[in-house]
Amino acid sequence: TSTPNVVTEGKPKLPTSTPTRKGKVLFVETTDRLDPSPLAACAIESAARTYLDREVHFYMKGIKEETLEEQIRQHKTLQLLSQLKNVQIQPLDFVSLFEGTPLLAWYKERQPEREQYAIHILADACRLVLVWKYGGTYLDTDIISLQPAPMEDFVAKQDANTINNAAISFHAHHPFLQDALADFVQNYNGGIWGHQGPGLLTRVMSRWCAFRHSSVVEEKCQGINIYNTSRFYPIPYTNWRRYFATWTPDVNFSNSFGAHLWNFMNKEGKKIVSGKYSVAEELFKKHCLST
């Protein structure tokens, strides 16, 4: 992994030795759910099959360390996932995770019953801390992995102006994430969708450098790769229903590391129907054969 340039004055400097990041791929479930949806199961399995030389860790709030094996046995999808040799299902304790970061005080003081997007914001927080503490690549549970992304520090645009947080990768203790953790608390607003997620990463990156507002340009900022939209968001969120339409030759994921299916947009409850040859069905058949 290339070492990012020393950041400009006023920004924290990189540690003298960069922690090794052979690489974990990280997923998070912040509810008590123990039966992953078919899409979440496919996301995790596809990552396990795509990143064969990396551990895939699925952190689940509902899992308890002392009863982990029993809980896995009781849920068929967890059984299937745990049988993949590089998948590890892990308990998620928020207090332990946030310990030593600015987010611990925020977590203890939060009032989730007053916030419409509380669960999503908690997931936004977890991914930042997991990658900051341990290093690795975080992926949302509605991203189907298609081919390995390089083991380098990266973010990716969802459109010309917005950097999404559904796919990020950094070595541990990267100063960009330190800035992001500080911004999470200092500029907190739980009432605006995405303010603590894509909005946060876009704000922080805008302070680090004047990245180009283009959906096709890829560039490097302070050693961080800023991928274009094709890498993880080849079908834009405004066209999310395309995943449920028939696969046609115009659908091309050759330049994509993953395909984000925009599950939050699916308020209609669209499902993948076997035999319809939809884009999503074809992705499932190719990339998650077990689950």
TrEMBL record:
GO terms for biological process: protein O-linked glycosylation. Gene3D superfamilies: 3.90.550.20. Pfam families: Gb3_synth (PF04572), Gly_transf_sug (PF04488). GO terms for cellular component: Golgi membrane. This is Alpha 1,4-glycosyltransferase domain-containing protein. Residues 1-20 are annotated as: Disordered. It comes from Latimeria chalumnae. It is a single-pass type II membrane protein. Coiled coil: none annotated. Keywords: Glycosyltransferase, Golgi apparatus, Membrane, Transferase. It is found in: Golgi apparatus membrane. Belongs to the glycosyltransferase 32 family. The gene is LOC102365959. GO terms for molecular function: acetylglucosaminyltransferase activity. The keyword Glycosyltransferase applies. Residues 170-291 form the Alpha 1,4-glycosyltransferase domain.
